[in-house]
Amino acid sequence: xxxxxxxxxxxxxxxxxxxxxxxxxxxxxxxxxxxxxxxxxxxxxxxxxxxxxxxxxxxxxxxxxxxxxxxxxxxxxxxxxxxxxxxxxxxxxxxxxxxxxxxxxxxxxxxxxxxxxxxxxxxxxxxxxxxxxxxxxxxxxxxxxxxxxxxxxxxxxxxxxxxxxxxxxxxxxxxxxxxxxxxxxxxxxxxxxxxxxxxxxxxxxxxxxxxxxxx
Length: 215
Known about the structure:
Blueprint: H1 10-98, E1 105-106, E2 111-112, H2 124-137, H3 144-167, H4 175-193, H5 204-211
Antiparallel strand pairs: 1-2
Helix pairs in contact: 2-3, 3-4
């Protein structure tokens, strides 16, 4: 029996055509619906991925911020510890080593007996005046006198260093004399800072000198 590939009547042909169109429309709507579902699923996955990435990024930033905070805190603690150790070393080692003898500095009056190599310095008069004021009234509430003496001594030491460096290129330098000058100026600074203590103390050398029998 042979198959017929066409309608036997015009009405049947119209019916076949309408059915084919409806089937095609139904298939398209089904495909569109499936595509919409797949698109929605893809969009939802993309949103979840972005959300996960955002949360991960925020967590990483939080961890980085915490790490930086911890590093800053550790650095601050190291600096504080270093300053405390330096201050302790200065009080235990440097202050006694550089302290002026009793015949060089009188803590009761603030009088400094300058060595001949420094006695004509341009800031001697200012340092003497500030030191005697410290001995008379104690440290200024704003640290004015101590700061002034420290600034003058630092500048003087720098000038000595620069002068020696310049002279050493063309002439012989008495390094022993230079070191003695620097040592004395450091002692002047420590003498000024000693007024921060309730009772300024003379150096061990000064005490020994005062207790030793007169020759």
